[in-house]
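Dear Dr. V.,

Thank you for agreeing to look over these. As mentioned in my earlier message, I'm a first-year student in the group and I'm still getting used to reading structure tokens, so any feedback on how I've presented them would be very welcome. I ran two proteins. I've put each sequence directly above its structure. The first is here:
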Amino acid sequence: MQLKVQIKTISNEHVEEFIRCPYKFYQRQLLLRKKQFVDWRVAVQLTAHQIINTYYNAPKYKRSSFYILQLIEHYWRSLKPTMFHSQIHYYDVLAKVSDYLLQFLSQQSEVELPLFVCEKYGVYVPELESNISLTIDFAQWTDSSYGVTKFIIDDQLDTQKMIKYFMVAFTKNAFQKLPEYIEFYSLLTGKRQHYKIEESDYEEAIKQLHMMKSVLEEPKFFQKTNSLNECKHCPLQSECSLDNAVETERMTMFM
């Protein structure tokens, strides 16, 4: 008998990974086979968080372009070329992330101390009857409210829209106040996607997250993506097929 997945906490990382490939999400998050492979995008994002967090925890007089490059050199050592598609891919990502991190942090040089920097929080959302967890990459005060910037590795609009809904639901319940804007900043292209947030966005966010939760609770949806780009370098190619269905009796999703 196939039962629904028990949702304990939904995180923005879960949503992003599920949208890229439900089967990989199932293998990594539900079967906890995380040691079998390392997703270079996750590794790069974590490294960027370390760089940004260390930069803003340093005294303001120390913050400079040279200091940013020092931090990139220091933290990038933990990323091995074998995590990437090839050595060329490794150096290409390094060059782009270095460039766009340098641009972003230089543009924010006048910010004394952001409201939040790469901090993870959890909150209960009554309408979803679930906890949700969000890593706030960068948030700063505006004249009337606050704005949130999310660093991303790709520019997929489907992923951005769902994460925007996720952030709207989270901020409303965590801070009782919606942000003035939510912005996505690609560390691979430098592209910015800016969304002005209105009170009416909360109702739509809850609607969309209800749908996402329903999908996450159904094992029949944990099937391979049809994205050739996603499958090309996936270490699970031999384990799944387009018509494979996940067989399980009970699974529980943790943070």
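The second protein is here, in the same arrangement:
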Amino acid sequence: MHTTVGIVEDDLVLRRTLARLISGTPGFQCVGACASGEEALRVLPVLRPAVIVMDLNLPQMTGIECTRRMSTLLPTTPIIILTVYEDGELIFRALKAGACGYMIKRSKPDEVLKAIKDAHEGGSPMSSHIARRVVLSFREPEPSVAPEGASLTEREAHLLSYLSQGFANKEIADKLNISVPTVRTHLRHIYEKLHVRSRGEAIVKAIGSNSGPGSRNTPSHA
């Protein structure tokens, strides 16, 4: 069974390189490679790939806007951002728009493939230094990561911390010595308490509560 992948990338050479990498790797298949957000919104909802790899700097519609719209059209399809940008605000905006992971274009081919696999399995893959930036946005790694007023339990706060580091449900279960169904139950409770609907939104909510005032001056371009 192949993991089907859709690509949204305006650079022709990189788009073809990614498509060849994915389709040339056992267990993966590129089912659509789009040059713009507009094309992606027409094509990918029909093809229904298991995972979408999204660039941010697209020619007209930004990758963040495309991610936001695609998340509505394909709510169960994980979207990984693959970009040159390492700006903290863009990471926040991409996750808030519905992305489940954030990778840098200089990542090695096997890292990109692993990110696709992890996203398909329920993880939140991030390039290592991006993950560090997300983790460092928490003032404390312990239960204090819970957003103000969220009233998370100690176990839920620990789980949210692992979630922010990109661990999949199985990995979180192993670290907390609980079952995967129990992880899913905790996640459902976390989503309810934070008033969010996805892993990315939960991470964003936690980051936002610890980033301090004035930290979200939205840039005009993605």
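From my reading of the second output: The chain has two domains: 3-134, 135-210. Residues 3-134 form a domain with the Rossmann fold fold (CATH 3.40.50.2300). Does that match how you would interpret it?

Kind regards,
E.
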